[in-house]
Design brief:
alpha/beta; Rossmann fold; seven-stranded parallel β-sheet; three-stranded antiparallel β-sheet
Length: 252
């Protein structure tokens, strides 16, 4: 039993190094234990300094101190992200005009669209995914490529966005707090602020872990969000931060 427990801990720590975050369900599936055992393992690992305990599992000690690159986030394509993308897809209507942000979850949305719509994006990866879809009218916003974030930007983009009444803007979030939605780049935050003012519907698609991350530039307040799609129920405190008119959808 002792050896089994040690080997189990080794596997959990290996996965934590690789993924940066593990839910109780991830641990149950990875090492074949019950929910109660997974919770006890999380407590023991956190007490030993292997990670930091969260409400739903455990995160690495460096999680939240830096914003992972797009390529790093792409490796963490979980079933939760797929479920959130499916929830977002249900909000797209044929003939609509939409903006899709540079988010790994929203890349999955771009890959899933199969109806005639017009899509604007500044994301290199979304553009590649949508370029093969003959039913989609694709508009790629120009400018210089940010290699870390994999999006294009130029100042003229902001004026272009102001002239478009999007049916909805699907926006990811680097970080979330009571004060709003934050991003690591000032120019990207400016794009999101412009979209929040121009779009008929602002739909933010983000995991609850983003409440634990910090980023320097605010795009818009939580009050600007019409629909918030996430992977698990918010805490009472988190839910209170949103406007009463914001629809909160938990993807399954």
């Amino acid at each position: 039993m002792t050896m089994y427990r040690e080997k189990r801990f080794e596997e959990i720590k290996r996965l934590l190094t690789e993924r940066k975050e593990l839910s109780i369900e991830d641990i149950m599936q990875a090492v074949g234990v019950s929910r109660d055992t997974a919770r006890r393992d999380v407590v023991a690992l956190a007490e030993s300094g292997a990670g930091r305990r969260t409400r739903g599992g455990i995160v690495s000690l460096t999680f939240g101190h830096t914003v992972p690159s797009y390529s790093e986030r792409l490796k963490l394509f979980s079933k939760e992200k797929t479920a959130m993308a499916k929830q977002a897809l249900a909000l797209i209507r044929p003939g609509g005009v939409y903006f899709i942000d540079d988010s790994t979850t929203l890349l999955k949305l771009s890959q899933s669209i199969d109806v005639p719509v017009t899509i604007y994006t500044h994301s290199l990866d979304n553009a590649i995914a949508l370029a093969v879809k003959s039913e989609v009218t694709l508009r790629v916003l120009g400018g210089k490529l940010n290699h870390h974030g994999r999006f294009f930007f130029e100042a003229a983009t902001l004026e272009q966005l102001r002239r478009i009444a999007f049916d909805a803007a699907f926006i990811g979030a680097t970080a979330l707090s009571q004060e709003g939605v934050y991003f690591p780049y000032a120019d990207d935050a400016a794009v999101k602020a412009t979209l929040a003012a121009a779009a008929r519907q602002v739909i933010v698609v983000s995991e609850t872990q983003k409440f634990q991350i910090q980023a320097p530039y605010r795009g818009f307040t939580l009050a600007a969000i019409d629909t918030f799609i996430t992977e698990r129920a918010l805490t009472v405190q988190q839910q209170a931060w949103f406007a009463g008119t914001t629809k909160i959808l938990v993807a399954h």
